[in-house]
């Protein structure tokens, strides 16, 4: 029962073109900044938005294929969604919310209510059955939404930002519960999040989206070890530079030259940790081969550390100590020399 | 919390934390209230209370009242049956000329009712553009019949329902419908269990407004359906006629209509007429 999807869809200015494979037993997270099409992917999978091209196949059942003229309407798909703010029906009790999907499928009322009660019990809310959504806490509402989705016995479960509607205090508990409940579901599990902490806690594998494209996929450890997108680089606070390698000399897209200890050729990513960047008021002498004249763009003091954003042929963020900043007397607009040892630069093919 | 210390009423009032009502606005609002209340005071003052019961229970007025209720309720039912799908179309489906369609379907609300009656007469009358075929093919005659009254009332009353329900559809968060679809609800099931409960306040308000408009309908009815006691003579028509010949009867029947309408408006809670849907 593998999900195999190629989603092509235009929404406003966003051109979505994403290939996605998820196997039963693994939890896959779509991770990326806001506005990269994560929720649109879910709407396509759930059938709320038809594909323009590509296909969605779940197991041996085709759900959407514009070329073959196949489109299964949302209520006939074995797909359940836990929506971002849960969207519990305000006029129904918790129990009626959970029973909704069964009633919609024609299960008799008493039978549906009995099964819904079992599901509520399973998420630990048996004594909240008669509560209306407005009297539930965020975490409880999320569990009702999960029970409501699972009660229809879907083969694909989609969770859209399952924790973003909660305040920080409730998050860690709910995250732990959610992880436990997800483990009991044996279908394909897919979640959308912009929070890497959620992805790390809940998912076995992440797919990084940027501007409607998949930029990277793998475990979160793999992805952060070798970031291939600005988003992940920013997340771990590293400098990510792209360029063309030629025997270990990388010419960046901004026109700078980087000497690497690795002998690398072709399109290349280079990662430089901010604390490896040293700053000098005048051109330094000695072993570093990477020395660039740069302009101070911005200075951000954080306690005893200072992050200095530098513009130039090799744009960088340097992290120095507050005392070093005082010694250099830096101000935005000043020209300084930035230096990085070749051995401090991680490179890998783009 | 009234100011008891003489000479310091303003300070005392300020301490309560309330600002004084703006005087000019209060005066204008009071004039408006009086403007609405005085005519009814006039009616009550002139009412022949000793004869009221016999006038009310007379054959003519009971017949007119029964006809008024019958026709206005039918008009309301028709307005709901046709108006809700139309409001849904206007709110949810984007098509070229939507603004024009909306204007056309609510035109009869702002038109003088007599004009609506004349227009109905020349389209659905026995020799009207479409009415002649209704007569020839189906044997249906609308003018000067009770059905004609219902048609005239529906024509002028439905726009109130359309506009109110359209607003309710627009204010609704359609993501709840999406959620219901993913749970396996067909479009009709979702409409019944999710959409309808969400627009219910708007639907009730719209139906009541339409019903009130139909109950008070005069111009289109008398132009299109005439004034036949027992068949097309509704309360407003009877009152108009009585006012010329038997003013006491007109006053009593007017008060009756006022009482019915006021009862319905008071019975409706503010939220139904305020147009704001229940929040989550």
Task: Describe it.
In chain A, the strands form four sheets. Chain A has a six-stranded mixed β-sheet with strand order 7-8-9-3-10-11, with helices on both faces. A five-stranded antiparallel β-sheet of chain A has the order 2-1-4-5-6, covered by helices on one side. Chain A has a five-stranded antiparallel β-sheet with strand order 14-13-12-15-21. By secondary structure, chain A is an alpha+beta fold. The mean pLDDT of chain A is 88. Chain A has helices spanning 38-46, 94-104, 109-122, 138-150, 168-183, 196-202, 220-225, 230-235, 322-328, and strands at residues 3-11, 14-22, 27-31, 53-58, 61-65, 70-71, 79-82, 156-160, 188-193, 205-210, 213-218, 239-246, 249-252, 257-259, 266-272, 278-280, 290-302, 305-311, 316-321, 335-340, 345-349. In chain A, helix 2 runs parallel beside helix 4 (138-150) and helix 3 crosses helix 4. The radius of gyration of chain A is 25 Å and the shape is elongated. Chain A starts with a strand and ends with a strand. Chain A is built from nine helices and 21 strands. Chain B is an all-alpha fold and 280 residues long. In chain B, 76% of the residues lie in helices and 0% in strands. Chain B has 14 helices and no strands. Chain B is globular and about 65 Å long. Chain B starts with 8 loop residues before the first helix and ends in a 6-residue tail after the last helix. Mean pLDDT of chain B is 86; it is low at 1-14 and 273-280.
């Amino acid at each position: 029962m593998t999900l195999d999807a190629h989603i092509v869809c235009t929404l406003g200015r966003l051109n979505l073109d994403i290939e996605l494979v998820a196997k039963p037993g693994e939890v896959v997270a779509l991770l990326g900044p806001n506005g990269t099409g994560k929720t649109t992917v879910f709407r396509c999978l759930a059938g709320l938005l038809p594909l323009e091209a590509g296909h969605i196949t779940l197991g041996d059942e085709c759900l959407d294929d514009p070329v073959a003229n196949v489109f299964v309407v949302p209520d006939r798909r074995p797909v359940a969604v836990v929506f971002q703010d849960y969207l519990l029906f305000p006029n129904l009790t918790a129990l009626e919310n959970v029973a909704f999907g069964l009633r919609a499928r024609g299960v008799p009322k008493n039978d549906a209510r009995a099964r819904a009660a079992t599901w509520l019990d399973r998420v630990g809310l048996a004594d909240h059955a008669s509560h209306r959504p407005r009297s539930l806490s965020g975490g409880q509402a999320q569990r009702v939404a999960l029970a409501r989705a699972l009660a229809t016995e879907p083969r694909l479960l989609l969770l859209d930002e399952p924790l973003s509607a909660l305040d920080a205090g409730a998050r860690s508990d709910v995250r732990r519960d959610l992880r436990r409940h997800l483990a009991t579901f044996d279908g394909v599990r897919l979640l959308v999040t912009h929070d890497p902490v959620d992805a790390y806690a809940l998912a076995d594998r992440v797919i990084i989206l940027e501007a409607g494209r998949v930029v990277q996929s793998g475990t979160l450890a793999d992805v952060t070890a070798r970031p291939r997108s600005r988003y992940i680089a920013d997340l771990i606070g590293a400098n990510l530079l792209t360029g063309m390698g030629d025997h270990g000399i990388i010419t960046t897209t901004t026109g700078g030259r980087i000497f690497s200890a690795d002998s690398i050729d072709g399109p290349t990513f280079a990662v430089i940790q901010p604390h490896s960047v040293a700053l000098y008021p005048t051109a330094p002498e000695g072993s570093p081969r990477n020395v660039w004249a740069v302009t101070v763009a911005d200075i951000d003091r954080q306690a005893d550390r200072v992050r200095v954003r530098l513009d130039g042929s090799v744009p960088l963020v340097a992290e120095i100590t507050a005392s070093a900043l005082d010694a250099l007397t830096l101000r935005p607009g000043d020209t300084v020399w930035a230096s990085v040892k070749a051995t401090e630069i991680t490179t890998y093919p783009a | 919390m009234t100011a008891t210390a003489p000479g310091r009423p303003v300070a005392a009032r300020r301490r309560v934390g309330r600002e004084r009502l703006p005087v000019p606005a209060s005066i204008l609002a009071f004039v408006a209230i009086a403007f609405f209340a005085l005519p009814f005071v006039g009616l009550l003052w002139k009412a022949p209370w000793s004869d009221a019961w016999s006038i009310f229970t007379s054959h003519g007025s009971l017949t007119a009242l029964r006809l008024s209720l019958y026709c206005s309720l039918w008009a309301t039912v028709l307005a709901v049956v046709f108006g809700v799908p139309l409001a849904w179309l206007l709110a949810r489906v984007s098509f070229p000329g939507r603004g024009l369609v909306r204007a056309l379907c609510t035109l009869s609300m702002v038109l003088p009712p007599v004009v609506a009656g004349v227009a109905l007469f020349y389209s659905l009358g026995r020799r009207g553009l479409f009415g002649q075929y209704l007569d020839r093919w189906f044997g249906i005659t609308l003018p000067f019949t009770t059905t004609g009254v219902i048609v005239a009332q529906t024509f002028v009353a439905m726009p109130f329902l359309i506009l109110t329900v359209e607003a309710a559809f627009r204010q609704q968060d359609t993501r709840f419908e999406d959620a219901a679809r993913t749970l396996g609800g067909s479009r009709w099931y979702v409409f019944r269990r999710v959409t309808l409960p969400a627009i219910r306040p708007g639907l009730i308000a719209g139906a009541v407004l339409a019903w009130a408009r139909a109950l008070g309908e005069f111009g289109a009815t008398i132009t299109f359906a005439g004034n036949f006691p027992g068949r097309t003579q509704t309360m407003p028509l009877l009152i108009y006629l009585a006012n010329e010949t038997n003013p006491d009867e007109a006053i009593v029947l007017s008060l009756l209509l006022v009482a019915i309408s006021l009862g319905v408006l008071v019975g409706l809670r503010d939220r139904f007429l305020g147009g704001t849907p229940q929040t989550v």
